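TL;DR need structure tokens for one chain.
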Amino acid sequence: MFYTPPKIHSPLSLSDLTARIGETVSVCGMIHKIRRMAGFAFVVLRTEIGDLQCVYGEQAAFPLSVLAEEQAVRVTAVVKEDARSRLGFELLLCEVEILSRPTEPSPVVINNKEIAASAESLYDLRPVTLRNAKERAIFTIQAEICRASRDFFERMGFTEIHSPKLVSGSAEGGANVFRLDYFGKEAFLAQSPQFYKQMMVAVFGRVYEIAPVFRAEKHDTARHINEYTSIDAEIGFAESCSALMQTEAALLVHIFKAVCERCSAALALWNAKVPEIGEIPTVTFDEAKEMLRKKFGRADEDDDFSPEEEKRLSAIIRRETGSDLVFVTRYHTAKRPFYALDCPEDPHLTESFDLIFRGLEVTTGGMRICDYAAQIAKMEARGMDVAPFAPYLQAHKYGLPPHGGFGIGLERLTARLLGLDNVRRATLFPRDIHRLTP
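>> reply
TL;DR here they are.
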């Protein structure tokens, strides 16, 4: 028999409060704003379930002067129906218990619709600025993206894994890694869970992970950060890139539907338009380059897209199909990692893809090499030293199924969904070449 634990405290939900009209309740929260009126005051309480409007009036058994913004309090109040309220009710304050007090006033005004501060101040004062409703909404939505992703993967039979973030080598085989001392040995922060999720397809078949990755790239742009969260999936016995893209499309449909249903108030604060996904258009890399040449008379790079080209391609696809998303397939081998599977009919191309969402690449994916000899041959053809990759290559040596997968940048996906102009805005505590605090 299972032990029955004692009942634990959980906050009253909005539906609980709606069902208790006329009753007295106890609610904990932070005093977000006090608006003094003639003979009464509105007190906005910031709680786990959202902002609640309270009314201080003649029923209160305490002086209004004891309240201050950003106090932590426990209030006793009567739930009163109010059709004018966004929630359909308000709380008539009766008693208050002050649980903690701030020692200084807030350095920025956080209880207006938006914070009037520079981007750097938003990040420098992150523990405070995130209390603003609009800033908080970004991460309410981001949390739902993660929750919906897990829900989708679990429904589809994936197993969640947790790969190590301290590793002995670089997943991409490049130099953009953070080095550190590991008991006298050289180690690195993981660029990707790529090797480990490939290993695990021979164990579980389908795996996923939502976790941080680290890139020591000295970029200082609106689209790059040095620590970000990746939603990674790897599928054993995957048949093709098309199958992988269909899986991601289904995942995005599930995410966007959940965000619309569960985060409508947060979306409204940003006037965000969530795309309706039908069939996502697909073009090959070379086709996309030709479209850009025809439209603009040139291409910026041979084997990749420049940031401006991603925006231009999105605009073309949007105009021609109405879609905010486009899959680009068959990238050139020279620009893809050593584990990318080459196209059998043209080894200069790979069975890989990116997903571009409103002018920004948010996903990279593709089929991987599962054959040991083929993987060794490709690494040697690139002049790579195979020896450091021996632990990874064990999976190939002792048998791997055909497989492929993809990784979605959580911050980029959030930023594009809300129309944010900088991926840092969609990062809880940004880490870039200038920032290591707070």
